[in-house]
Amino acid sequence: MERERALSLTELARRGFTELSEARDALAELSELTGIDTADLTASAGVAADADAALRGFLRVARRDPDAARRAPRTPEGIEAMWRILGASEGLSDFVFRRPAEFAGLAEVPDQLPSATELRDELLDAVGAVDGFAAGGDESAWIDLRVRYRRMLARIAAFDLAAPDAVHVLDDVAAALADAAAAALEASLAVARTRVSTGSFAAFSREQIAATRLAIVGMGKTGARELNYVSDVDVIFVGGTIDEEVISESRAIDAATRLAVETMRGLSGTEAEPALWEVDANLRPEGKQGALVRSLDSHLTYYERWAKSWEFQALLKARAIAGDLDLGEQYVAALAPKVWSSAARENFVESVQRMRERVMEHIPAEDQGYQLKLGAGGLRDIEFTVQLLQLVHGLSDEAVRQRGTVAALNALVAEGYIGRDDAAAFAHDYRVLRVWEHRLQLHRLRRTHLMPRTPDGLRFLARASRLAESGEEIQAMWEQLGRQVREIHVRLFYRPLLSAVAGLSEDERALTADEAHSRLAAIGFRDPAGALRTIGALTSGLSRKATIQRHLMPVMLRWFSEGIDPDYGLLVFRRISERLGNTPWFLRMLRDSSQAAEHLTRVLTSSRYAGELMEWIPESVAWLDNPDMLRPRTVPALLDEARAIQDRHSTSEEAMKSVRALRRRELLRTAIAALLDVTTITELAESLTSIAEATIQATLRAARREVVPAEDSALDFSVIAMGRFGGRELGFGSDADIMFVFDAQGVPGERATQLSLKLVSELRRLSEDPRVPLDLDADLRPEGRNGPMARSLDAYSEYYGRWSHPWEAQALLRARGAAGSNNLIGAFFALADEVRYPVTADPAAVREIKRIKARVENERLPQGVDRKRHLKLGPGSLSDVEWLVQLWQLQHGHRVPGLRTTSTLDALEVAREEGIVNDANAERLRAAWLLSSRLRSANTLLTGRTSDVLPTDRHQLDGIARLLGYPPRSASQLEEDYLAATRRSRRVFEKLFYG
C-alpha cells in the first residue's frame, strides 16, 4: 500500500504538481464530485502552467456547483483545455467560480480566433442593443456585458494557450484582444445611450441622443490592434451633432460628454462583476485638465496651435474603433498630415529621446531589472525606436506610416531604413516580450509589466509561455534578450541621421530636377549638373542598395554642402560606393552608425589626400564607425604586421607590395584621425614618424635578404634618422632625412663598402611608391651631396674628428637610430654625442652657424615666393625656431642633459625651465612652430600635394583654415594669425640668435 502511494505521488510530480499530498486528496474529491475517473482527470494535467492552481480552481467550482462541473465536457480534449486555461489563469478561474454557468465554456478550444464582427455582435447581443440603444440602462446591463466579454476573453485565451507556438500567434491574439476592447466600448456606449435618455434623471431625449455623434478613437496598442490581456485602453472622444435642429452642436457636446462618462463607467466602474480594465482618456488635448469630449474643429485647432511633440507621437496609432466611425475616421484623416509632419518641428527628435529617458528615470529602484515594458531592453525601447524612425522617415515616405509595431518594422526594413538583421531581432524580441507580458497578465487578469522575482514565478512563466524548460532558462533568456534590445535601441534611437533627416526642409526632401540643380548650386556645389549625374548614378534602380542611397542622399548632400569641396566629396563617395559594390556592411553602417555618414562626408570634402587613399582602400570606411580604429598604431605593432607579411611571401618584390599597402593604409588612418580631430599635431607627427620608421625597417629587412649573402651576414648596417624624421616631427608629405652607417665586422673592407652601397640602392628602390612617395633624403650626411652615400663607423669617426663642419654637428642634434643593427646604432651615437654636445661650444662654430643661417634665408628660398608665406624658411617659421633651439643645444647640451633630445618642442621646454629663454618668448616660438607645422600638413591634406608655401588662393586658404578649426570664410583671419605669430617669433629669434 505504501509503495502504491509513493508511486502515485511520483506520478503526480511528473505531471507538474508540487503540493503532492494535497493534490492526491483534491483529485479524489474532484473525481467524486464530477464522476470523472482520477486517471482521466490527471492524464493531461501536465499541460497546466500551474497544475496545483488549476486543480484548486476546478475543485472550487465543483464544490460550489457540482452540476456545472458535471456539465463540462468529459472528452480528453475538453479536460486538457480545462487544465491549460485554469493552470494559466487564476483570473479566469475566479471568473468561472463567480459564474459557474460559464465553466463549461472553458473546455472548448476554438480552431480560430473570434473576428471583430463576431466580437461586436456578441457583446451587443449581451446588452440587447438595437439601433445603438441597449435594452436596459441599469447596472445589470453592464454586468451582462462584462460577463460576456470575459467569456470571449476565455475563448481568445484558449486559442492562445493551445497554439503550438505562442510567438507565432501573438499578432493575431493581440489584434483579437483589441477587437474585443472595441466591441466592449461599443456595447457600453449602447448602454450609456439608454441610460442617459431614459428614467427620471434623463437629461436628454432619445431623439437627441440618437442625433448626438460620439466617436471613440483608440490610441496606443488599442489603435494599433496589439492590445494586452489587461491594459489601459487609451481613447479620445470626438463629439458633434447630426442635426442642429434636433440638438445643437454645443448641446450635443454636453450629451456626448455624458455618454463618454457613462461608457467609461460601464467598463471601469465598481460593480458586482469586476471592472474589465481602465478606459484612459488622458491623451486628449490638455490631458486631465482638458474637456473630455471636443468637436472635430476644436481638436484640430488645439493640435494646430498648442500640441507638443509627444502628443503627435501619441496619435501615431489612432484608429476609429467605436461609436460614430465616420466621425472617428474624419478625425484620424484630418490629423494624419500633422502627425506625419511633426518630426519637422524644431528639436523633435531630441524631445522624443528625452521623453524615453524620463520614462526610465521614473522607474522605481526596486523594479529596475524587472520592468518588461518600461525598463532598459524592454518593450518601450522597441516601441520608441520604431515610432521615432516612422515619424522621421514618414515625413516623405508614406510606406512607413503603419500603426502596428511589427507592420512598421516590416515597412522600415522593406524601405531600407533599418537592416534586416536588426529588424528581425527587434520583431522576434518584441513578440517574445509580449508573450511574457500576456502570460503574466492572464495569470491573475491584472495589469502588470514586471518579470517574476521568485523561482516559482519564473517556473510558472516558463511553463505558461513554453519558451523555456525552466525558470533559470527564462531568466537567462530575459537577460540576453534585454541586452540585445538595448544595444539595437541605443544604436538606432540615437543615430544622428534621425535629427538630420528631421531637420531637412520640405524642399530638401523632395525636389524636381530643375529645383535640384538650383538647390545644389545654392548650397555650394560648383558643378551642380555633375553632382546631379553622380546622385543619379548612386540612387537609380530598384536594388536595396539604391533604395538606401535614396534615403541617405538628402542628409548626406547637406553634410557634403557644409564641407570644403562638396563636388569632390560627392564624386569620391560615388567611387567608393561603386568599389564596395553590394558589400552589405557599407550602407548599413552609414545608415545605422552614430557618426560614420557625417564623418565620411567631412573627410571626403576636406581632403584630396585622404580621398585618393580611400578610393584605393575603400574598406577604410569601416574605421569611421569606431574612433578606436583611428588611433595611431605603434612601431612594434606595425613591425609585427610587416614581418608577418614578409614571412608569407617568397620574394622581396611581393613582400614589399604588401608593405607599401600597409604604409598607405596607416597613412590614411592617420589622415582621417587628423581630419576628425582624433589626434593632436604632436600625435600626428609621432604617427607619421612611426609609419616611416616601420616601413624603412621592413624595407631594410627585405633589402638585406636580397643583397647580403649568408657568408657576409656578419655585416652590420644601420639607418640613422635625421632632421624632422629624427625629431619624430614628420608632417604629411615630409621627406625622411637619413644617413647610412655600416661596420664590416670581419667582412673585407671593400666588400663591406660594396654591399652597403647596394643595400642603400636596394632600400631606395624597394621603398619607391608612385602613389604616396617616400623620399629618402640623405643630403644631411657628411659633405652633403658630395659625400659617399654610406660610410663605415670608422670613417664617420675619422671624418667627425678631423674635417666636420659646424652645420654637420648641428645636423647630428636630431639624429637617432631608425633601423638596422642596434649595436652599431649605439656605437654611432657614442661618437656622435661628442660632436653634438661639446663641453664648450666653439665661438667660431657658433659664428659659422649664424652665417649659414643668414645665407640659407637668402639663397634657399624658392624664386618668386613671398618669404613671409614660406612655412619652413620664412621669417619666424619652422627654420627660425629649430635653428635657435639647436644653437642652445650645442651651447648647453653638455651641461643640461634635458637638452639632449631630438624633439624641438621638448628641447624648447627644457630651455624655458633652465632659464635660457623666458616664458613669454618660449610661448611665442612654440606657437609659431606649431602653427607652421599644422599649416604644412593641412595644405597637403587639402590638396593632395606637398607645399611649404601658405597659398594666396582665397578658396584654398579658406579650406586650410577650416581644417584648422576656423569657421567658413576665415582665409583672411588665418592669414593674419599666421603672419602675426611669425612676426612675434621672428623678433624673438633675431634677438636671441643673432644677439
Task: Decide which structural class fits the backbone.
Answer: mainly alpha
Largest sheet report:
5 strands, mixed
Percent of residues in helices comes to 55-70%
Strand content: 5-15%
What is the terminal-to-terminal distance? 118 Å
* Mean pLDDT over the residues: 90
How would you portray this structure in words?
The protein has 995 residues and is mostly helical. 62% of the residues lie in helices and 5% in strands. The protein is built from 45 helices and ten strands. Strands 1, 2, 3, 4 and 5 form a five-stranded mixed sheet that branches. Helix 21 (455-465) crosses helix 22 (471-493). It is elongated and about 125 Å long. Residues 1-7 have low confidence and may be disordered.
Question: What is the topology?
Answer:
Elements: H1 2-14, H2 20-34, H3 38-42, H4 51-64, H5 66-71, H6 76-88, H7 90-98, H8 116-126, H9 139-162, H10 166-197, H11 206-211, E1 212-218, H12 220-223, E2 233-241, H13 249-268, E3 279-280, E4 293-295, H14 296-305, H15 309-314, E5 319-323, H16 325-341, H17 348-361, H18 379-393, H19 405-414, H20 420-444, H21 455-465, H22 471-493, H23 496-502, H24 506-509, H25 513-522, H26 528-539, H27 544-561, H28 566-580, H29 584-592, H30 596-606, H31 608-616, H32 635-648, H33 652-675, H34 681-707, E6 716-721, H35 723-726, E7 736-743, H36 749-767, E8 776-777, E9 790-792, H37 793-802, H38 806-812, E10 816-820, H39 822-836, H40 843-859, H41 878-892, H42 904-913, H43 919-943, H44 954-963, H45 971-994
Parallel strand pairs: 2-3, 2-4, 7-8, 7-9
Antiparallel strand pairs: 1-2, 1-5, 6-7, 6-10
Helix pairs in contact: 1-2, 2-4, 4-6, 4-7, 6-9, 8-9, 8-10, 9-10, 10-13, 10-20, 14-16, 17-18, 18-19, 18-22, 18-23, 19-20, 20-22, 21-22, 25-26, 26-28, 27-29, 28-30, 28-31, 31-33, 32-33, 32-34, 33-34, 34-36, 37-39, 38-39, 41-42, 41-45, 42-43, 43-44, 43-45, 44-45
